[in-house]
Design goal:
With 306 residues, the protein is an all-alpha fold. Helices cover 67% and strands 0% of the residues. The termini are far apart.
Length: 306
Amino acid sequence: MTMSLVNATIAGLNATTSYSSVLEEVAKYNVHLNWAERLWAAWYLWMQNDVLATGIMAFVMHEIVYFGRSLPWIIIDSIPYFNKYKLQNQKLPTWKEQWDCTVLVLLSHCTVELPQIWLFHPIATYFGMDYGVPFPKLSTMALQITVFFILEDAWHYWFHRALHYGPLYKNIHKLHHTYSAPFGLAAEYASPIEAMLLGFGIVGIPIVWVSVIGDLHLLTMFTWIVLRLFQAIDAHSGYDFPWSLRHILPVWAGADHHDLHHEKFIGNYASSFRWWDYCLDTEAGEEANKKRREKKLAAMRAKKAQ
């Protein structure tokens, strides 16, 4: 928060206590800010505790986005018309499965993720994250979020692949594979260790970024997390529509990519893109197996011909 904004606004606050009163003061003394920036600045000034302000905003945002984005998939699962787009249409989630999943995910959010959310602000600001106004340019946000998607995908690929190693799978990752036909709510259905390990790619990479580059705004961080939540939930939805992003952007993983991972329990380890699995020959499914067999046969024929 810029000092001129803080000083000018606090000077006009006097004994005001309501958020709307603070917002009025912010608007009065900071006409150069847009409405979103005024709402943001007023929130931090009204709270008078930056750690608490960021923590509440982050937790509420996470819950609204996670369950709000999962809700359409719950509705779609209950409408027979959409069954033709279901990748494993013989395995529709029951209401009990969805309820059990919701309870565990909520428990995880409150016991595992909430403390991390509370620690995020002091750690991120220590390394240089900005949370003031005005907001960064959209072009800057887009560039940084693109980098985060690419770096997180690499992190996710290697650690997810490691979690399929015998003891690690049995003691950590097996819980996430409870459902061989995933559904939206199951995106964060995982053990605490897995949530922290793979979650570092989402939260830790931006912190490393700002510590090295020195440029990151909390709004960019929130936008990145929202988009990554959308990606994770959609990847677990179990539906592949003709208008799904992977049909527009061929390198995008999509639901078909991750659904095969849950069905076959091996391969397709990346989160957002297909290139790691393609380049390292860890693609799952019959088509990929067929290509591997053909490649082996071709190599054997070439060897015999020598």
